[in-house]
Design goal:
This is Probable nitronate monooxygenase. InterPro entries: Aldolase_TIM, NMO. Keywords: Flavoprotein, FMN, Oxidoreductase. One of its GO terms (molecular function) is oxidoreductase activity. This protein folds into two domains: 234 residues, Aldolase class I (TIM Barrel, Alpha-Beta Barrel), CATH 3.20.20; 60 residues, no CATH class. The mean pLDDT is 97. It is globular. α8 crosses α14. β4, α5 and β5 form a beta-alpha-beta unit. The protein is built from 14 helices and eleven strands. The strands form two sheets. Strands 1-9-8-6-5-4-3-2 form an eight-stranded parallel sheet, with helices on both faces. The protein has a three-stranded antiparallel sheet with strand order 7-11-10. It starts with a helix and ends with a helix. The chain binds flavin mononucleotide. The site of flavin mononucleotide (FMN) has 29 residues, from β3, β9 and α9.
Length: 317
């Protein structure tokens, strides 16, 4: 399965950059791809024009394969994003679909010759996405930064269940930041891993330095969930702003009344302008293992070396 994943995406290492609203720009995607992994330009948190610009930047900065993340529910009209992806179909090497029903979109990208990855959070969704034609699944556990699936399965429980439910490669996501996590994911039957939080705290990431340093300073218990009151689950770094949101959520808000607290602009302020007091910033529980802001190449190469060492050690048991 690992080999199949590497061949489908044309990459050296089974490591993928998860789609990241505001953070997943062309420069970061290119840095990830140049390190032998699979970078992805995220479409969330950017205008259509900026989305195109970031695709162009990735094209300029790497000759290696990279992809696009399309979180359907983040766009009032995802069709214009789909058209943009199709415009660059010869330059990109895969699309990951998240946050919505992937079924109508899968055939469109497949007909364009692009491998399609679908983010899932239960074994049932994994099976459905496979039936709908997905080539690769990303099984994302609730340790992950950002929006999580409502079932809140952990990566350790979800990944083997998803692997057992399908015949296609499954990538593990959520809480993975080092070689131990990569080795563990492979042991659970995953073909590779997807990283989010670890890549935020890299030199090439466009995240504000305060956000990067907050991830480095955070312990595993320093994240929490917001948006539960409206039936969503979103993992963020704890802080004063988040306490205010949670206090408001206790009053039983409607989605409309909660919106001013959770709108994208509040995310942008925190993550790109460093105004952590005025907005929210996503982080997975793996933040407790992130102790340095590193160049992307170091993150990827260290992860691969560590995983090899762990696997060699385990094979002696
Ligand atoms: C800053 C940030 C932004 C994210 N935005 C998106 C997004 O736009 N689309 C998406 O599918 N997932 C998004 N995610 C989830 C990641 O793609 C990835 O699956 C997750 O971060 C993996 O868990 P980890 O954070 O523990 O590494 C985001 C995660 C982070 C940390």
């Amino acid at each position: 399965m690992k080999q199949r994943l590497l061949e489908l995406l044309g990459i050296e290492y089974p490591i993928i950059e998860g789609g990241m609203a505001y953070i997943g720009d062309g420069k970061l995607a290119a840095a990830v791809s140049n390190a032998g992994a699979f970078g992805q330009v995220g479409s969330a948190g950017r205008s259509l024009a900026d989305f195109e610009l970031q695709i162009q930047i990735a094209c300029e900065q790497t000759d290696r394969p990279f992809g696009i993340n399309l979180p359907i529910g983040e766009h009032s009209d995802p069709r214009e994003r789909v058209e943009m992806i199709l415009k660059y179909k010869d330059q990109i090497s895969g699309v990951s679909i998240s946050a919505g029903n992937p079924r109508p979109f899968i055939p469109v990208f497949k007909e364009a010759g692009l491998p399609v990855m679908v983010v899932v959070s239960t074994a049932m969704h994994a099976a459905k996405a496979e039936q709908a034609g997905a080539d690769i699944l990303i099984a994302e556990g609730t340790e992950a930064g950002g929006h999580n699936g409502p079932a809140e399965l952990t990566t350790f429980a979800l990944v083997p269940q998803a692997v057992s439910a399908v015949q296609i490669p499954v990538i593990a996501a959520g809480g993975i930041v080092d070689g131990r996590g990569l080795a563990a994911a492979l042991a659970l039957g995953a073909a590779g891993v997807q990283l989010g939080t670890r890549l935020v705290a890299t030199e090439e990431s466009p995240a504000h330095d305060r956000y990067k340093r907050a991830i480095v300073a955070a312990q595993g218990e320093d994240t929490t969930m917001i948006e539960r009151s409206i039936g969503h689950v979103t993992r963020v770094l704890k802080g004063e702003y988040i306490e205010e949101v949670l206090r408001f959520e206790k009053t039983g808000p409607t989605p409309e009344s909660l919106y001013p607290y959770i709108k994208g602009e509040k995310n942008r302020l925190a993550v790109l302008e460093g105004r952590l007091e005025d907005g929210y910033a996503y982080s997975g529980q793996g933040c407790g293992l992130i102790t340095e802001i590193l160049p992307v190449e170091r993150v990827i190469s260290t992860m691969v070396e560590e995983a090899r060492a762990v696997i060699a050690k385990l094979s002696q048991l």
